[in-house]
Amino acid sequence: MATQKSQAIGRIAIAPSVAVLLVWMIVPLILTLYFSTLRYNLLYPDRTGFIGFTNYTYFVTNPAFTTAIVNTLVLVGSVLVITVILGSLLALLLDQPIFGQGIVRLMVIAPFFIMPTVSALVWKNLLMNPVSGFFAWIAKSFGLQPIDWFAQAPMLSVIIIVAWQWVPFATLIIFTALQSLDLEQKEAAEMDGAGAFSFFSWIVLPHLARPITVVIMIETIFLLSVFAEIRVTTDGGPGQATTNLAYLVFQQAILNTNVGAASAGGIVAVILANVVAFFLVRAVGKNLDT
Amino acid sequence: MARKTSKATLALWTVVGWAAGFVIFFPILWMFLTGFKTELEAYSTPPTFLFFQWTTENYVAILEQRNYVKYALNSIILAGGSTLLALVIAIPAAWGMAFSPTKRTKDVLLWMLSTKMMPAVGVLVPMYLIFIWLGLLDTHIGLIAVLCLSNLPIVIWMLFTYFKEIPKDILEAARMDGATTWKEIVFVLTPMAVPGIASTVLLNVILSWNEAFWTLNLTTIDAAPLTQFIASFSAPQGNFWAKLSAASTLAIAPIVVLGWFGQRQLVRGLTFGAVK
Question: pTM for the full model?
Answer without folding.
Answer: 0.84
